[in-house]
Write a structure and sequence with these properties.
By secondary structure, the chain is of the alpha+beta class. About 35% of the residues lie in helices and about 15% in strands. The longest helix is centred in the last third of the chain and has 24 residues, at about 300-325. The protein binds iron/sulfur cluster. The site of iron/sulfur cluster has 13 residues, from α5 and α6.
Length: about 325
Amino acid sequence: EMTVRQCIAKGLVGGEGFAVDASTIKADANRQRSVPSPDKLPIEAAHRAVREYFSVLDDAAFGSATPVQPKYISPVDPAARWNAASGGLAYYAYCTNYLIDLKSAVIMDVETTTAIRQAEVTAQRRMIERTQEIFGIWPERLAADTAYGSAENLAWLVHERGIEPHIPVFDKSARQDGTFERRDFTYDHVHDLYVCPGGQELKQQWRKINSDRPNTPPDNLLRYRSSKLACDVCTLKQKCCPNQPNRKVLRSVHEGARDMARDIALTDAYIVSRRERKKVEMLFAHLKRILKIDRLRLRGPNGARDEFHLAAAAQNLRKMAKLIPPGAPALST
Ligand code: SF4
């Protein structure tokens, strides 16, 4: 916090645009010594790292980030996650998350999470909230990669925080079989329906239903269906829904935020943001190659947190040494 305050005082923080990203760092845990499940952990002689593991089981940045249990657990640092995603040998790791200001790549906040993608969004929210609380700084735009482009996260940024998402939309609607994709259907905001390439309407309800069904489905996806009668006689049926009686299109309840992100992605400002977000990756490269933090020395979530914070503070100090001209007044502490 002190290094960030100094950077703000010296004018190195613009506060207009932020970027966020995460990087995995190997934990101090031997991959050869693993247990298959938490039941096999030596609880009787529980050391600090094991106690910390149990204390973060309900934390959205650690234990409850995903219901999927890791394949192996390290008995010396069980909160470190078994990571086999890199294609090489699997290893135990933590994730360091950076929220940076895009003016001079000052690190505004750091969050430690388990090494899994779902935790990155939790970290992003915590860092944005904390930066606002501590420094009173609220960015106008946030640049990030597709990992942050889920409908829920875009909606949180747009509707709850008023931040422009310069983020590619996470979209799984692409089809491989050559049939029409969702983007071939036009959404009519006024009448809340889709119009298909054949000019027919797709609606959520074709007749009035008197039921107590909730308006929002549990998976947050609204379902729009075409009329079977129209599809039966449509010349485009083979290109649209060859194996179904009619066509169904799903729409997220957060589609408004997704549409906003898609519109931003067509602007020149987005091209600038996409280039600027590389600054976070450069900080991670510097962290691993120059500061040599490619493997942690301390164990447990608190050990990882301490090392990540110290490393980020060192990077901010280096930034000040580089950008503040010689002869400027000495920094007060
Ligand atoms: S098959 Fe049905 S939904 Fe598809 S284009 Fe034809 S009318 Fe529209």
